[in-house]
Design goal:
The chain contains nine helices and no strands. The chain has 141 residues and is an all-alpha fold. The chain folds into two domains: 52 residues, Up-down Bundle (Single alpha-helices involved in coiled-coils or other helix-helix interfaces), CATH 1.20.5; 89 residues, Annexin V, domain 1, CATH 1.10.220.
Length: 141
């Protein structure tokens, strides 16, 4: 009985583990794996693609994609998400976003919070969740 429960949990967590691995891969490796999966199961490949979005993927969105994303994310959340990232990544995001949104996000970035690491991690998770949702709906790519 215990083995069947363990096997079931491995099966259930398999998709989540694949998504986590895809998030850590560089884009060329990720795309190569998704192409192979797409041959056998296009629906699964699309789901994995949309749910495995990382900040690197968001960073490489077109300005139009970033503008669409900024329409559904609050500037304060985006600013907090950027807070723990490298300065060159922050600069790339802020220069690509609509000016008013970028200014509000920058204001959050430059404000000190006592629990910045926790808030930053939660904000990054929220941004990735929203980006995944938007990608799954075909609103960004």
């Amino acid at each position: 009985m215990k083995n069947s429960n363990q096997n079931a949990s491995v099966f259930i967590n398999g998709r989540a583990q694949i998504i986590e691995m895809l998030q850590l891969m560089d884009p060329s490796e990720k795309e190569k794996i998704l192409k192979l999966i797409r041959i056998k199961n296009p629906v699964l490949a699309e789901e994995l693609h949309s749910k495995s979005i990382s900040f690197f993927d968001i960073q490489n969105l077109s300005e139009e994609g970033l503008e669409r994303l900024s329409g559904v994310i609050k500037p304060a959340i985006f600013g907090m998400a950027l807070k723990g990232l490298a300065a060159n990544v922050q600069k790339k995001f802020l220069s690509s976003l609509p000016r008013e949104f970028a200014e509000q996000a920058y204001q959050t970035m430059t404000t000190y919070y006592t629990n910045e690491k926790e808030l930053g991690a939660r904000a990054r998770a929220k941004v990735l969740e929203i980006a995944s949702s938007q990608a799954f709906r075909g609103k960004i790519s």
